[in-house]
Amino acid sequence: MKLIDNSGGIWTNLITRRINPDLVIKRAIIPNEKLVKEMANEAISSIKGSIKHRFKIGRVNGELIFNKFPSGTYEYGILKRKSPDGEDWEELNPLTLKHREFKFKEGKIDQVRGKSFILRETSKHILNGLKIKKIRRKFSGGQTIEIGWDSKNEEIVRLQNDGGSVFDEWFDTFKSSFIPSRPFRGFQKQLRENFRNILEQIRK
User: Fold this and answer.
1) What is the Cα–Cα distance from 118 to 104, expressed in whole angstroms?
2) What's this model's pTM, rounded to 2 decimal places?
3) Please, are residues 203 and 25 in contact by the beta-carbon 8 Å criterion?
4) Each residue of 100-113: pLDDT tens digit?
5) Where are the domains of the chain?
6) What residues contact 124, with CB distance under 8 A and at least 6 apart?
7) Digit-coded pLDDT (tens) for 5-14
8) Which of 18, 68, 83, 120 would be 183's cystine partner, CB 3.0–4.6 Å?
């Protein structure tokens, strides 16, 4: 009986050569820079609560190939006003909404965010500021990717995610106010299941 390994060498390394499984998986995934970037973008989409994609993984002549297809949206995230664990965010204070209207009339914000966007006037800082920050290539041929926010947005991100006091302009004066925690950092269950499915396809 002859066994044929169609996994591009993954099963051979696992069974015959008995190489550490984590190392085998890393070697299988990491050299494919495009896939790693797409997985990072998928993580970003999950944090935003945006489009979810289904990944189809295959191999041609031992080389990893993939396609992705939209398959709905992530259940939790910034746009869904839910934490990565599925907890609803605290609603906006009615005075905050009046303050937004005041700032808009005074020309101090460029557009009205309204009730649908609970993180105040922060879409350009939090929602659109989340991106791939760094790609570190290793001598071994792999790379690691870091997602997050630039330092100029990090304080805004920390305040909105963790909550805390802020001294800010309030109508025609300045005052100290407390912002409740509205967590959005972290990976929700749907993303973890998506990545698990990708790894299972790679191991086949």
Assistant:
1) 16
2) 0.76
3) yes
4) 777 777 777 655 55
5) 10-203
6) none
7) 344 444 444 4
8) 83
Two tokens, residue 51: 């489009």
Tokens of 62: 């031992």
Pick from 18-22, 53-57, 88-92, 147-151: least confident? 18-22
Following CA atoms 171, 174, 180, 186 in sequence, which dihedral angle do they give, to the nearest 10 degrees? 100
pLDDT, mean of residues 191-197: 92
Residue 154: φ, ψ to 5°: -60, -40
User: Token digits for 184?
Assistant: 């959005």
DSSP string covering the chain = ------SSSHHIIIIIS---HHHHHHHHHTT-HHHHHHHHHHHHHHHHT-EEEEEEEEEETTEEEEEEEEEEE-SSBGGGTB-TT-PBPPPPPHHHHHHHHHHHHTT-SSS--TTT--SSS-IIIIITT-EEEEEEE-TTS-EEEEEE--HHHHHHHHHHHH-EEEEEEETTEEEEEEEPP----S--HHHHHHHHHHHHHHH-
Q: 77-109 burial by CB neighbour count: b if 16+ within 10 A, else e?
A: bbbbbbbbeeeebeebeeeeeebbeebeeeeee
pLDDT tens profile 13-30: 444 555 455 555 555 555
| Overall residue count recorded for the chain in this entry | 204
